[in-house]
Amino acid sequence: MKKNLISQLLCVTVFTATASAIDPGTLYRNTIPEDKNLDPAWVQSLSERGHALDAGISGSKAEDTLKYIGMPVSGIATGTVYLNGDGRLFVWDIWSAGHQGVLPNLVPPPKGYSGFRKQKGQLTPVSGSTYINPLTPEAFPPSFSQGFGLRWADGNIQQFAAADWESVEFTGTWPVATVDYADSKSPLQVELKAYSPFVPLNLQDSSIPVTVMSYTLTNTSSDTVQAELVGWLENMSNTANADTAGAFSIQPEWTSLSHACAMFMPSEKRGKRQSAPFHAKGSMTLSYLGTGERTAVNEVPGIATVIELKPGESREYTFLISWHFADLRIKMAYGPEWILEKNAYAERFEDADAVAEHVAANFDSLSSQTRAWVQTWNDSTLPQWLLDRTVVTLNTLQTANCNLLADGDGGRFWAWEGVRVCHGTCTHVWHYAQAMARLFPSLERNLREKTDYGTAQLENGVVPYRGTIKAGEGGGIAIDGQCGTVLRSYREHLISKDDTFLKNNWADIKRALEYLIDFDRNDGDFDGLLHGKQHNTLDASWYGKVHAISSLYIAALRAGEEMARRMDDREFEVLCRELYEKGSQGIEKLYNGEYYVQEEDPAHSTAIGVGEGVYIDQVIGQFWANQLGLGRLYNEAHIQSALNALWRYNFVPDVKAFRETFRKGRYYAWDGDAGLIMSSWPNGGLKDDFMNHWQYDYFNECMSGFEYQAAAHMVAEGTPELVERGLAITRAIHDRYRPQARNPYNEIECSDHYARAMSSYAVFLAVCGFNYDGPAGVIGFDPAIQADDFRAPFTAAAGWGTYSQKITPQQMQAELKINWGQVRLSRIKLNPGERPFQQVSVSLNGKKVAAELLERESGVVIALAEMIQIAQGQQLTVVLR
User: Fold this and answer.
1) 225-233: strand order across its sheet
2) Which of 86, 359, 509, 697 shows the smallest number of beta carbons within 10 Å?
3) Which residues pair with 841 in a beta bridge?
4) What would be the CATH architecture of the domain defined by 771-880?
C-alpha cells in the first residue's frame, strides 16, 4: 500500500503540504538510494589519467558533440566571447548588454515544473534555461557577420565551421582550445589555436580585450598548394549610418581593419521597474599578424593573405579580433537604476587599434606565456577530467560576469553572482570561490582593499554583502558572508609574498571579526556559536544555532587568532582562542550521532531553515580550515560521519525519480544526471510550512558550487572512502556538463558562469594536499591519490610551476620546478607515509642547500638554513632516505 502511494506521488505536479501526509523521510529514502550502485568501471575511471575534453564530428555528422560548446576566449573583465566547438565565435557580450539584454534564452519549463522566476511562462537563465537549452551559434547567431576561411582559386570560401569540413575535432585545454579540420577533398589540414592571453599571477597580460585565432595550415598533398586565408568583420553597430567599409591599415608587421561602433540598448522593464536606455560607442578591429590586403566576403570587409605551401609544409597564420567599449553599464543597488562606469582597460588603450598594436608588438611573449601555462597545468599524473573540471570554472573571469572599473589605480574589481544577475560581488557567494585567489590573487586583494574594506565597510565592522549597498538599503549583512570575508582576508595574506596586505588591512579585518564577536556576545551566553537572525546565502534569515554558520564563525575565530598572532595583537589573539575553544566544544551539541543539525529558535518557529535535515554545508568551517592550514576545528570522527551522511542521504546517482517527487527547485541536474542534493530529511523533521516557502526550492537543487565545497572537504579528510566519494561528486558534475548534453564551460546557478562554481579549485588543492604560506616561505604537498608517483601544477605568490614526487621503500624524491616567476622558500612540508626516512639532502639546480629534517605528526618538514629564491627555469630537489 505504501509503495502504491509513493508511486502515485511520483506523478503529481507539485509536492504540496497535502502530499506530506506521506512521511517525507520515507520519500527521501525512496528517491535517494543508500546503495548508489555505481558502475565499477566508472569508479575506476575516477583516478585514471584519461585525456583532455574532446568532441567532434566526422563523416555523416550524425554524432555532433560540438554544438553546445561555448568556451570563453576573451580577456579577464573585458566581456564575453564564446568559441563554439567548430571554431566559430559567438555571443559577443562585449558592450555591456548581457544575456539578459540581447540573449534572453527563454525556454519552456519541464512538465510539472513548479520552480520560481519564470517570465511569460518561460524559464530564464536565472532558473536554469541555459542548462536545459545551452546557447548555440544557430540559436543565438551574432548580429554581425564575422569569420575565417580559405578562398580557393574558383572563388569559393571554405569557412572554418562544421558545415564545410568532413571532420572537425575540438580539444579543450582551457584557456586554449584546439580545433582540427580535415576533409578528403582538401589538400590542407588546419589546426586552430584560439584563446585570449592568459598568464596566472599576471593580470595585466590576462585582461586584454582581444581574441587570438592562430591557424596552422599543413599541406598533406604531393603538390604545392596556393589559396587565400581570409578573415572578415562587419561593423557590429546596431544604429543607423554606420561605416560599413571600415578603416584599412598596413603596418610593418601587422594589417588591420577597424570599425567605429555605435550600439543602442533600449530600456528594460522588469515588473513596474524600468531602466534607462543605454548608448555605447566603441571600436572593433580585425588584425592579421603579417602583410595582408583588403578584401570582402559576401560584401563584408575583411583581410586576405596569400598562402603557398609545398608538400608536407606547415605554417602558422594569426588573426586577432580586438574591441574597445569604454562605457560599462552595471547595477549598484536594488531597483531599476543602472549606472555608467568605465572599463579599466580603457585607461590602458585608446581604442581597439591600440589593443591590436599592443598584442602584435608583444605577441611572442603573450603567446609563449599562455602556452607555457597550458603545458604546466596539463603536465600531471592526475586524471585529466579532474584537471579540466577543477580549473575551468575560473573562466567566469573571462565573461561579462566580471568587471574591472576604471579608478586610475589599476581598476576596482566588481562582479555579479552570475552573468547580469545579482550584483555587488556578493560576499555570501564569492567566499566559496577559491580559483581566483590562487591564480590571480591581486584580484582578491583588490576586492578586499577597494571594496570590502574600502567603499563598503560600515563603522560597526559590517561588510555589506553586496559591496556598495549599505545597511538599510536592501543589502545589510549576511552572516556567512561576513565570516567568509574574514577567512578570505587570512587567505589573501597567505597567498602574498610578504605581510604588507595584512599590516595594511588588519584594523579593518579585526573590525569585521569584532562585529561577529559582538553578535555572539549580544546573544547572552558568549559561547563561540552564533544565535539570532542570520541571513545567509540561501536568501533567507535562519534563527537559532545554525551548524553551518557557526562552523564558519569558529573557522573565522581561528583565522583571527592566527592573524592577531602575526600582528602581535596578543589581547585579541587570546580572545579569539578562548571563543574558538568554546565554539569547538559547543558545536558538538548540534551533533545528533550521525550528522550536525540546526537547533531552531522556538521564538521564530515559522522561519525557514534546515532544522533536522542533512544539509550540504553543515561542516563548511572545516572546509575553510583545510584551505588555510588551520588544522582540525572540532571532532574529527563527527565531521567525517557528517560527510558520510551527506553521501548516504544526499547523493543521487540519477536525479530523475527525486525531481519527479520533489518538483520544486530549479533544474541544474537533469534526467540521468547524478548530483549532491542541497538538503534532505531522511529521518523526518521537515516542516509542512517549509514546503510552501519559496526558498524551499533551493533544498531540492544540485548547485555545483556547494557540491564542490563538500567534495573538496571529503578529499581533504584523506580516508580512502571519503576521497573516493569526493572525487565521485566532482566527476558527477563533470559528467553533467558533458559536451553531448550542454556547454562544458558554463556552470550554472542563477544565471551563467556562476561565481560559486569556482570552489571547484578547492578539490584540486585537496587532491594535491597543497599547503602554502607565502610570507613565511612555506610550501607543502600531501597527495590524496597517486602519492608514490605524483606530478601536478602549483601556484605561489609570485611564481608557478610543477611539483613531483616519487616514493620507494629506499627513498622519497621531490622536485619543484619553476616555470614562471619565482618562489621564496624556507620550509617544505612532505608526507612520506609510513617510511621512516632519517636523512635529507636538498639541492637547487644541482648546488647543495643546507637543510634539516624535522618530524611532525603527519609527515616531515624540511627546514632550510636560510630563505632561498627559486627563479624561473630552476629546480629544487629534495631527497629523503
Assistant:
1) 157-159, 146-151, 225-233, 300-309, 293-297
2) 697
3) 879
4) Sandwich (2.60)
